Amino acid sequence: MILGIDVGGTHTDAVLVQDLQVISKTKVLTNQANIMASLLEAAEKLIQGDNINNINRIVLSTTISTNAIVQSKTSRVAMVLLSGPGLSPATLNLGKDAYFARGYVNHRGIPVKNINSREIADISSEIAQNQIHHIGVVGKFSSRNPQQELDVAELLENDSRNISLGHTLSGQLNFPRRISTTYLNAAIHDIYQGFV
Question: Which of 21, 22, 135, 191 makes a 20 to 30 Å CA pair with 151?
């Protein structure tokens, strides 16, 4: 038996499925201040008696992150980009919190230009001065060799920062898409942490 729960901005829906048949379903109001309470309330309405012993999988989903993006209720994010030559990320309209750092690897994953630790320290100071706690780091070919992203993250790291790395979110070479994915991942971090 499968217990599926979807947490929305207004309602939390839950369903019990066995052998591709809906056994029961329910809908409760989502408590934004306590998502776990909404999950438990929905589950408790469905799970009775021996049903709990028959559940072999629980599937959770949410539109809370999507809603936050659409409603511009995400966290401020600084992006540190190792773009190298070619397509300029400046054309992507990344805003004032985008930092273009030296260092890049080529399309085969071979380092061509090393990162500059002093430059990263200066970027880190500016990010701290702007009180930004979420950072995305993306190198153009980091999916081929993530070491420079890892090195930049280590230089940026402190206790109050969440750092998202492009190579951990996609193995694809599409640099603009990895920038966007990394940005959104960092922007919804707090919301997601509240969900899980």
Answer: 191
| pLDDT band at 167; cut points 50, 70, 90 | very high
Q: What is the pTM of this model?
A: 0.81
How many angstroms separate the CA atoms of 156 and 163, rounded?
8
Q: Which helix (H) or strand (E) holds 14?
A: strand 11-18
Burial of 67 (0-12, 13-18, 19+ CB in 10 A): middle
Q: What is the 3-state secondary structure (H, E, C) of 131-163?
A: CCCEEEEEECCCCCCCHHHHHHHHHHCCCCCEE
Domain 2-62: CATH superfamily is ATPase, nucleotide binding domain (3.30.420.40)
Tell me if domain 2-62 and domain 77-195 are identical in fold. Answer: no
Q: What percent of the chain has pLDDT over 70?
A: 96
Q: Do the beta carbons of residue 129 and residue 99 sit within 8 Å?
A: no
> The domain 77-195: what is its CATH number?
3.40.50
Question: What confidence score (pLDDT) does residue 89 get?
Answer: 67
- Residue 50: per-residue pLDDT: 65
Tokens encoding 68: 């936050």
* Cβ-based neighbours of 68, under 8 Å, separated by 6 or more: 74, 188, 191
Report pLDDT digits (tens) over 170-180. Answer: 888 899 999 99
